[in-house]
Design brief:
Layout lengths: L2 E8 L2 E8 L4 E6 L15 E2 L5 H11 L16 H10 L8 E2 H7 L6 H9 L12 E2 L12 H13 L6
Parallel strand pairs: 1-4, 5-6
Antiparallel strand pairs: 1-2, 2-3
Helix pairs in contact: 3-4
Amino acid sequence: MKTYRDTFGTPVGPFSACVNEEGQLVGTSFGEPAPDKACSVFVGSQESPKRLAGLRRQILEYFAGKRRDFEVSLAPAGTAFQQRVWAELLLIPYGQTRSYGELAKRLGQPGASRAVGSANGSNPICLIIPCHRVIATGGGLGGFAYGLEMKRRLLDLERGGEFRLE
């Protein structure tokens, strides 16, 4: 599969995105993509800011508090269970959160909170598939591949409509 990437600046530092030949988003990453994470789609990809110009605009609108939903075709690679979890993540509205347990119940597998957490952590399209909106049952932040501070800042942005630089 031939892929194309772009890395551009945001208020939280570099953000990378990768699309396939059909223009479907296959991976994103805060910072430079790390192949040891869920970013193997970036390996061997060709730099092509032009192919990702629309997504870049949408990401920057998100950080400016002017966008709540992304308009992009998605093609994340994963197991059937991961795909089901990621589809549920897409249903979490901007500014809201769900617990791992709530997602497991919505999937019809109330005992699968840990499996949901694992699938959430394997999400190759962070931010667009909003894994940052999943929290622990008790209200704690839970985990996030890019750190809890980043997760808190994204949730703060969505709750207040403005990104606060620190």
